[in-house]
Amino acid sequence: MNYDQQKRLLDIFVASILFVLFLPIWIIVPILIYFDSGLPIIFKHKRVGKDGKEFYLFKFRSMVRDADDLLHKHDKKLLKKFKENDWKIENDPRITRLGKALRSLTIDEFPQLYNVLIGEMSMVGPRAYVKKELEEQTRKYPETRGFVDAIKSVKPGITGPWQTSGRNEIPFAQRAAMDADYAANRSIWKDIQILLKTPKAMISKW
């Protein structure tokens, strides 16, 4: 059995266990989101997957409705801040009250288990980047173009090397380098190590 086959079995096994283990969350969180800010419950967003193929990544909605349009079409000041800070905004005003709690517990990411089960993502891999983010960031950091090619050679993951390194708030160039290094040196043992580190990394965000 080669690495890709081993990894797929690991993905299905871990995602299935987590799906069942956190079954109450699939019931309670949608109810909480509905009463906090209405529909939709699930947020889907196009991301870049293996070989550059785009797919819809799923999350529990943690922002106001039409948050993407609000950022890109109606709030130029916020958009400028977003891009200057490597596609992140500290204390993002679009995040709902409940969304802050979901994000702090990483619960908003749980629907990505579905992406794993259908084979679009892996439990462990590089960040699932937005296509426009990669285009703009490689213009800003031209030295990362080779990193991006490596990142797109594998499936993106729910967790990965930089998420578990204690260095979540790092610039794109460093993040891309870590993701590319993972893509070039991946192994089942390394995936298992990252999975075992992930609970501690989640708790450290609280």
User: Number of folding domains?
Assistant: 1
Largest pleated sheet? 2 strands, antiparallel
> Secondary-structure element order, as H and E?
HHEEHHHHEHHEHH
Quaternary structure type: single chain
List the total number of helices.
10
The coarse overall form would be globular
Task: Outline the secondary-structure elements.
Elements: H1 3-21, H2 23-37, E1 42-48, E2 54-60, H3 67-74, H4 76-84, H5 97-104, H6 112-117, E3 122-124, H7 131-140, H8 145-151, E4 157-159, H9 172-184, H10 188-203
Parallel strand pairs: 3-4
Antiparallel strand pairs: 1-2
Helix pairs in contact: 8-9
Please describe what this structure looks like.
- The chain is mostly helical and 206 residues long.
- It has one domain.
- The protein is built from ten helices and four strands, in the order ααββααααβααβαα.
- The strands form two sheets. Strands 1-2 form a two-stranded antiparallel sheet. A two-stranded parallel ribbon has the order 3-4.
- β1 and β2 form a beta hairpin.
- α8 crosses α9.
Entry summary:
The protein is mainly α and 206 residues long. 54% of the residues lie in helices and 10% in strands.
Entry keywords:
4 strands, 206 residues, mainly alpha, globular, 10 helices
